[in-house]
Fold each of these.
Amino acid sequence: MNIPADLKYTKDHEWVKIENDIATVGITDFAQGELGDIVYIEVDSLGENLESESVFGTVEAVKTVSDLFMPLSGEIIEFNSELESSPELVNEDPYNSGWMIKIKLSDANSASNLLDSKQYKDLISN
């Protein structure tokens, strides 16, 4: 299982990469494995300011549909448009070409609530 050490994680199995006041967000390798083949990603909150833990979209797999939750508060400034025609990128490369959204953070300090790679590994091992 791939859990990059340079990323932060949520209990909802999302990863976060923060650069200055922009956070790139996707779902983890563990999450895409649990979901199975992903067939559709819907993010209808582009341009919206959302609070942490708000639903920002859904991911649809062959066997289920799951909500996607904001890991941090802020404005969704970008959606990975490649996912519209190639949602399988989330399965193939969840930490790079399978990223989902970019958030302009309203409070960069809120990232201290996220898990590091060891804490996330412990979470999914239980």
Amino acid sequence: MTRAIDPADLTLLLHAAARAGATLTYAEALNALGFAFSRPKMRALCAALDDLDAAERGAGRPPLACLVVRQSDRLPGQGWWVGRRDHDGPFTGPLARAYLDRHQAAAFARWAAAGEAA
């Protein structure tokens, strides 16, 4: 049996990234959580990111999955875009970058203002 991604560890990782104004690649996020990159772990990470975003929205905070991006273009994978209700544009390119920048800025601002408090 393989070890699961701990939601609490993922939350701490992304709160710290947001406070630092930083993004992580999918591989960096997995490595920080103690996993090597693999397709099954990538799918598990994406599911955990969806759950984390739902919890953040439920708490009235900006979602954080936007901070986890592909190394190639620094944009989230297609699964993140599919869940967007306020974006019907492309998943890549300048329009996608502008949309993502707004979400990342909201996360950075929220957690910079929070300091070390959750």
Amino acid sequence: MKINIIGTSGSGKTTFGRKLAESLSLPFLEMDAIFWGPDWTFPEDKELFSKLASALEGENWVLDGNYTRTLPIKWDNIDIVIWLDFSFLRTLFQAVTRAFTRILTREEFWPGTGNRETFGKLFSRDSIILWTLKSYRRNRKKNAGYMQSSKYNHIKFIRLKSPGQAEEFLREAANNQELIFN
């Protein structure tokens, strides 16, 4: 089973993805960890696509993350896309809470990268909060389009519109995988 969790920054993709992967006993892959290099460096497409293709070689996995340019690789042979489509205020609240928690804890996002949230970054044009504000509506429109596109008829889309729905989905997935995924 191959699953991609999508949603706007701050929607909880990584947290949800980890929980789902654990309950299904599947490997969890974090798209941001595949994408970001040390010191917030961007990979060239060739490098990114190669790293992603290697990470997705397994027969079963849960991957969180969007990165539109990677869709041909991620969704070529995927079974399910789960869209965390929470309200704007909920998503923004989660993005702000996460950013401030990471600033206070000085948590390194991905081991060996040195990438951390800082107050300087939080109030820059690269702010994750600013990104959430700018991309929320655009992402919702794009994700809704994916669900309607005949290009992706081979994918089962699941749209979860609240944290409560997401928690219920996780409970049901843990208890009866066939009910959820068939």
